[in-house]
Specification:
InterPro entries: FAD/NAD-bd_sf (IPR036188), Prenylcys_lyase (IPR010795), Prenylcysteine_Oxase1 (IPR017046). By secondary structure, the protein is of the alpha/beta class. The chain has 15 helices and 20 strands.
């Protein structure tokens, strides 16, 4: 029922690209009256959002596309950890849900290969002991789930099924490759489905307490929101909490060799002018166009897509645009630390599970820890630890045995700190010229994990 995803939210992949596509659908029609026939479109950010923007824009019109990325590689949070004699390990957006029609389309489009991995059992940790553990067989795990959580188990399946039924209404009926309906905002998009927008306006616990038992909510559901978002059930809005549950099952997969390949393939297929290591510092409006500045360099663009959270940049925007963007959300820091070692038996017992998820309000140094790679040729497996701050030496000593080796650490600002009722800026910030993706506050969990 619940799988440890090595990096968070399989569904957030879906919603980010979905929002970008809906911008692009009406982009050509909105600008043809004021810009050249073949406009120069600038995309700021070469993560999954920017790459998807470039891909669909190149297919729906005839623009010249320039993509800017301040890092030296594309992908954003879709990155891998590379170690000697070890397959690439997903360091950021790691897992994709089966319901993610966009990612399935991309993988098929580029002849990439899907694969599924599981490294064993999972336990729910309350700070001092395991309150629940899965087993080697599905039948035994289901028996234990029903014995402890009773009707909350089938209630979850029913709840998720209803959510996904509504969520599928956001896709074109004839598939993602067909014509999409344009929307001006996340709100208008979500209102297409019954109840989805309303879920963003209320707290998740206020909804969930009417569906699940208190024990199930504080143990299983809390563990899911903490591993997905690094936040507790009381902090979540109803939408983000619901889609976290939708992405907590076993039907999850990744791209063989690394999910980052999807981003690379999208950009390659778009025939973009890619500028790596270039941070756009300022955008100025010049007549009906936009001037982008980075150091002493500048570029003129007929339209701009901001495919990166404005809050996480120091980019200067014209005042009227900055006001519309309302870039005042705080983001949740999630540190992904990769450690080769074995779990501390003094802390977790003689036979700890392969993955440890923490329950409601556990004040420990980590929110989850789980195996992401193991080999018969190596004494110890590699774990990924999620935490809300950098791990100290004493933190690592509590989690692992003394021979643990820290391999790498990635501080991700992956999700906003939720605060329902959520507010969403429109996609179009400046009369058809600057567009923004605004999805995280609703459910950035609708894409990856």
């Amino acid at each position: 029922m619940v799988a440890f995803r090595s990096c968070r939210c399989p569904h957030c992949f879906n919603f980010i690209t979905l929002s970008i596509i809906l911008i692009l659908i009406f982009f050509p029609e909105r600008v043809t009256g004021s810009v050249p026939v073949n406009p120069h479109v600038c995309v700021i950010g070469a993560g999954i959002s920017g790459a998807t923007a470039a891909f669909f824009l190149s297919r729906s019109s005839s623009p010249s596309i320039t993509v800017f990325e301040k890092q030296s590689t594309v992908g954003g949070r879709v990155q891998v950890l590379r170690l000697p004699d070890t397959p690439p390990i997903e360091a950021g957006a790691s897992i994709i849900a089966e319901e993610n029609a966009l990612m399935k389309y991309f993988v098929n489009q580029f002849n990439l290969t899907r694969h599924q991995k599981s490294f064993g059992t999972m336990g729910l940790w309350n700070g001092s002991k395991f309150v629940f553990r899965t087993h080697a067989t599905k039948a035994r795990t289901m028996f234990s789930l029903l014995r402890r959580y009773k009707l909350s188990v089938p209630a979850t399946e029913k709840y998720v099924h209803k959510l996904l039924k509504e969520y599928k209404k956001l896709y074109p009926k004839n598939g993602v490759q067909s014509k999409w309906t344009p929307y001006a905002s996340v709100q208008s998009l979500l209102e297409r489905a019954d109840g989805l927008f309303n879920l963003t306006q209320v707290s998740f616990d206020s909804v969930a307490k009417n569906v699940f038992s208190e024990q199930y909510l504080k143990e299983m559901v809390a563990a899911i929101t903490r591993v997905n978002y690094g936040q507790d059930i009381y902090q979540m809005n109803g939408m983000s909490g619901a889609v976290a549950l939708a992405g907590s099952g076993q039907d999850l997969w990744a791209v063989q060799g690394g999910n980052y390949q999807v981003v690379e393939k999208l950009l390659d297929a778009s025939h973009t002018n890619l500028n790596l290591g270039v941070e756009i510092e300022h955008i100025a409006k010049v007549d009906n166009a936009y001037e982008l500045h980075s150091g002493k360099k500048k570029w003129m663009c007929d339209a701009v897509i901001l495919a990166t959270p404005v809050e996480l940049t120091s980019m200067g925007l014209p005042s009227h645009i900055a006001k519309k963007a309302e870039a005042n959300r705080k983001f949740q820091l999630t540190v992904a630390t990769f450690i080769r070692g074995s779990l501390n038996k003094a802390t977790f017992g003689k036979d700890p599970p392969a993955a440890v998820l923490t329950t409601d309000l556990v004040d420990d140094s980590f929110t989850s820890v789980g195996i992401v790679h193991k080999s018969e040729n190596e004494k110890n497996p590699i774990f990924k630890v999620f935490s809300r701050k950098n791990l100290t030496a004493s933190d690592i000593d509590r989690i692992f045995e003394g021979d643990a080796e820290v391999l790498a650490s990635f501080p991700w600002m992956a999700y906003p700190q939720f605060a329902p009722p959520e507010h969403f800026a429109g996609f179009d910030l400046d009369e058809h010229g600057i567009f923004i993706y605004t999805s995280p506050s609703s459910q950035r969990v609708l894409l990856w994990k």
